[in-house]
Structures are given as structure tokens and as C-alpha cells.
Amino acid sequence: MPEHFPLMVPGATPDGELLDVHAPYDRSLIATVERGGARVVEKALDTAYRLFRDRDAWLSPARRIEILRRAAAIMQERREELAVEAAREGGKPLIDSRVEVDRAVDGVHECVEFLRTQHGEEIPMGLNAASANRLAFTRHEPIGVVVAFSAFNHPLNLIVHQVGPAVATGCPCIVKPAEATPLSAMRFVAILREAGLPEEWCQGLVTTDLDVAGSLATDQRVGFFSFIGSARVGWMLRSKLAPGTRCALEHGGAAPVLVAEDADLERALPLISKGGFYHAGQVCVSVQRVFAHRSIAHDLAERLAEAATALEVGDPTRPDTEVGPLIRPAEVERVAEWVREAVDRGAELLAGGEALSETCYAPTVLYDPPGDARVSTSEIFGPVVCVYPYDDIDDAIARSNSLPYAFQASVFTRDIDTALRASRRLDASAVMINDHPAFRVDWMPFAGLRESGMGVGGIPYTMEDMQIRKLVVIRSEEL
Questions:
Q1: Rounded CA gap, 386 and 292, in Å?
Q2: Which structural domain, as residue segments, surrounds residue 375?
Q3: Are 282 and 235 members of one domain?
Q4: What pTM was computed for the model?
Q5: Same structural domain, 96 and 231
Q6: Residue 478 in domain
Q7: Distance between CA atoms of 469 and 449, rounded to whole angstroms?
Q8: Which of 32, 224, 410, 439 has the maximum number of C-beta atoms within 10 A of its C-beta?
């Protein structure tokens, strides 16, 4: 029997039909989730906003730390269960879903560490007649109600990045997970409540339709809007936010990798392969476009194709699976269409290029597809890596920078000058040297530029965004 998840809005009754959640690998029904319509959204917002306005009801930092520590301990105890269920609902292989759970647990601890060490600062006074007899300092307060919309590809860790900082900073939070993967989010909200967080402080719901979701994000009672998902939806919602609502948007990219003539291919190839085919390429900073010096480009592509062909594709809950399904069958059809287009227009197909089932697509390597093909100009979000030869590295950098996306990038070289030149000239918020562009730890800044997003992710940076710095000035003749 599929598991049932009730609405997580205290005092509200569900609306409309249940959401059926299907495993992306075999399309089996694994859960049903109650939905919320306009009445539920109003109830959730009213509850959260009333809580924020009642300063006597705010949770102390000590209480928040206690709750988060308990939540992390519960998650650690249920590590394998959370990993298996995340793999089942999202399709990320179990070996990687276990890592995701570990990161999520560490992320909760990171919220605690930041909360324990964050402090205000003294602003100099007494420097002239106007500032005489005054003491000034800053303190941090929650920004208000946080509304978080999340994506499917990291169903637990993304929620931790959005909800964990809200709880830590004392913001009432309403989370709307992706409809394809709502279960890990609901489990995390339930764990927070089990750890002692009053229900009203973190509410979870899946909405009945897009208009209802939009009304949740754009309500004037929202202090901070956190969005992870498509650029089309993110920018549209940002344009409709109420005056004063801050936001952070994390969209996709088309991560470039530069491989110089002197690169150590023995070390580079496993990293490029992992960065390209991890979670079947469904990561916003996946390796997509590899620009390699012409003297090594075809050899690199052939060896990458060998690595791709050797990957184990299949059921994400099996411990030996390395590449799982795409999130839904329509995505398999889309990726197949893009690859066919590239091959028909002259790209050399070195590996893959076919659907293995309704839900899985073979890890694919294309050599030198046209620059205006969709695999070259748009985020593939599938297990496809394109290798392009170049003669001059500045030309490769210019091609890397030619798209409207800018997120993370990387360069493989043994020459420090080449590494520094590329790191200065690549349009990216982060440049990895001798590593793939999908590298991330959860305390580092993580930011999409241009169409790839706005604001800075990473737990400490998100916590900063979810607070205001309030200045307090004391005047006294004793100062």
C-alpha cells in the first residue's frame, strides 16, 4: 500500500484530489499527498504571520539550537531509511542519496554552528560632536515569514538549505516542495516537529494548482521567498513579489569545463565523468560542455565515452546503480530529441544516444556538436556531455561565456598561469581548478548569475539573508 501524507498546515482541511507520487524508475505509486487550495494557503500565511508579529512568542536561540540538534540526531538514526526513500522518490542512486542524507545532517549542524557564532558589531560613535555621548551596536532579528519553493533533484538536502536556516534564524516557514518529490520534505518537517518545533513554525503543503502556489509566494505577508527551480518560473514569480519581499533564486546552468593541453587526463577523466553523469545529469552545475585543446580533445572524448558506457544504469535503490532514471518519461523523450538533433547536424556520437527504457537514458558523449544546437545552448539536465575542440584558450573561454547562464565552471591544467587566467575570465560565481564544476560543500557560497539566479546560497549566506541587522543607538551623558 502506498504511504499517505496529510496536509501539514495546522487547523486546515485539504482541498481537491490527492497528489499521487510515483517512483521515477518504474512509475509505481509510492505515496499519496493531501493538497491545499486558496483557503489552506490563507490559513498557513495567517498562522505564520501572526506568529511573527507576536514577539513574545518567538523561540529563543537556545530553544532553536536544542530543536535543531535533536532533529540532526533523529536524521542520523534514520539515515538509511531517509536515503532509500529519497532514492525511491527522486531517482538519485542510493550511493549518492546516502551522501545527500549525510550532507543534510551536516547542514542542520551547520545552522547550529552559525547561530552559535553569529554576533552583532559595534558602530563607532563619539568621533565628532554629532556622535558624542552615544553607543551604537547591531543585533540580528528574523526577517519575517519565509516561503520556500523547492526542486526535485535533491529532495532532502535542498529543503534543509531552505528550511534549516529559517528555523535557525527564528522565521516562521512555509515550504512547498516539488510535486515530483514532496515526501522527503514532509519527512523533514515531521522530524523538526518531533524534535520539539511547534507545528505552526514550519508548515508544509502541496498546492492544488499554479495560481494558488503563486498567491503563496507573492503575498504581502512574505518576508523572504526562497526559490529553487526553473528560470522561467523563478523570474516570473520574482516579478510579482510584494514590495519589500526579499528573495533568492537558484536556477540552472550549462556548466563549462576547460581542459588545457597539459591537463592530467588520468585524474581529470573520473572527475569529469562523475560531474557529468551524477544523478543522470539532473544537477544545475553538471558537466555539460567540455572545451578541450584540439591535440587531446578526441582522445578525451573517447575515454570519457568508455567511462560512460561502463556505468551501471538502473534501479536507484540498488547499491550498485551509478546512474538512475530521469524524473519523468517526458524528460527522456526530450533528451533523446536533443541528442538526435545534434547527431543529425554533425555531432559524433561516441557513447549512448538511446533510451534504455521509458525512464532511463544511456549516459551519452557527443563530440563537437554545432554551437547552435540545443545541447550546446540550453541546459540539458540529462546524462549528456558534449566535448568541443579548441585551438586557443581565450576562444574557449569566450564560447564558455556566450550563453545567458553563469554558475560554476572548472579548468583542468598543470599551469598556474593558465588556471588563474581562466579563473579571472570565466563568467562564473565559482571556478574549480582541477575539479569538476559540480563540486559543493554546504557552507560555501553557491550562486547563479545572470539567468542562472539571484542571491547567494549556502547555509551561512542564507541565514544572513533571512535576518535583518537592527541598529540600536544609546544616548547617555555617561558615554
A1: 10
A2: 256-433
A3: no
A4: 0.92
A5: yes
A6: no
A7: 25
A8: 410
State how many domains the chain has. 2
Q: Which residues contact 177 (CB under 8 A, 6 or more apart)?
A: 150, 155, 159, 184, 185, 186, 204, 206
Residues of the chain with pLDDT under 70: none
**pLDDT tens across 6-44, in order?**
999 999 999 989 999 999 999 999 999 999 999 999 999
Cα–Cα distance, 290 to 451 (Å, whole number): 21
Residues marked active site are found at: 250, 284
